[in-house]
Input
Amino acid sequence: MMKSRVMTFRAALVLLAVVLQGCATTITRVEQHQALFDSLDDATQATLLHGETQLGYNMEMTYIALGSPDEIRRKQTETGDTVTWVYQYSSPTSHYSAGSHFQSRFYGGGYGHHPYDPFFYTYEPYNYVVHDYLRIEFSGRHVVGIEEIHN
Output
């Protein structure tokens, strides 16, 4: 019985560690790559802690700065293979659509319909658009391109 509780507690701790790793902060990511971080000069450490990467940084350094990408794209070309880490955000989109909304109204002796709102704006909870805001391109595990996207 006691052994079962200990096993359940350990399983819960492992699950918690996995979940927390998924939402790692910069400090947590530094702790995951402590030896690499300690080997870097102060300026590079400050850059990573500010959530920035630069040309020439490796994948681990970029992970420390930015975390896990939302999408990974691989490309093969004649000059070699590249990997692009894509960071994204989602935002609700609105539907602005022309339509005929009618309102019932009593007109001297009978009901009639007349348009009262030819346009309407709606936000639907399931209607989101995903936008790329940052793409980091790697070749040979080192950053060779940084693309910031402003929508």
